[in-house]
Design a protein that fits this description.
The protein has one domain. 59% of the residues lie in helices and 0% in strands. The N terminus is likely disordered.
């Protein structure tokens, strides 16, 4: 598997876990769709022709600079989203594949441990964080919150797209069969949440 492969489940799960965990000591109520969006926004490079995957959009340097205005305006309320965003590179992509350009543009060096993304080790890691996130969502009742109408639910269309990108960008399917179930569960959860809001909007036009 080339190093431009990506599995959204691990990013979404880690983004939710780290963002939610950081919100508790800060006493911040997080917006769940925004948290999921922040966790995968780095992968926008997959849709930009000529831009290397896991390059500039995965840079911690860039995230610090981009989040400065949000931190100045919203203070501690912006912190969980910042953490959800940087975990994508610092935890997810640092561990698997060909690494990431963590410090671009300061340096164009690539950093990473290099666990093969389709390896059994990564499959175990993806399943572990997926089950942890699902358990936390059920314990905090966030799972059911996603099935309630909220205008921000439409932001979930972007995380949904990252879940189906492996199927759209490659044939045969890039996602290992062992990870199909967590992908489908996240895809269903986030898609239904977005559709609930879309239905509400259409009924109130």
């Amino acid at each position: 598997m080339e190093d431009n492969s990506t599995f959204a489940v691990g990013h979404l799960a880690l983004g939710y876990i780290t963002g939610k965990a950081s919100s508790k000591p800060l006493n911040v109520n997080v917006n769940l769709p925004l948290l999921f969006l922040a966790s995968v926004i780095s992968d926008v490079d997959l849709l930009i022709p000529g831009l290397k995957h896991r390059g500039p959009t995965h840079s911690l340097t860039m995230f610090f600079l981009l989040f400065i205005p949000a931190l100045m305006v919203y203070g501690k309320r912006a912190v969980p989203y910042f953490i959800a965003a940087v975990q994508h590179s610092l935890l997810g992509d640092y561990l698997t594949g060909g690494g990431t350009q963590l410090l671009w543009p300061v340096t164009s060096n690539w950093y990473g441990i290099g666990i093969t993304i389709t390896s059994l080790t990564n499959v175990y890691l993806e399943w572990t964080v997926f089950l942890m996130s699902l358990t936390l969502m059920l314990k905090t009742k966030d799972f059911w919150t996603l099935f309630r109408h909220h205008p921000s639910n439409l932001m979930l269309t972007i995380p949904v797209l990252t879940l189906i990108l492996p199927a759209l960008l490659s044939f045969p399917l890039a996602v290992p069969l062992e990870l199909i179930i967590p992908h489908l569960i996240y895809l269903t959860l986030l898609s239904v949440s977005a559709l609930i809001d879309l239905k509400y909007l259409l009924e109130n036009i």
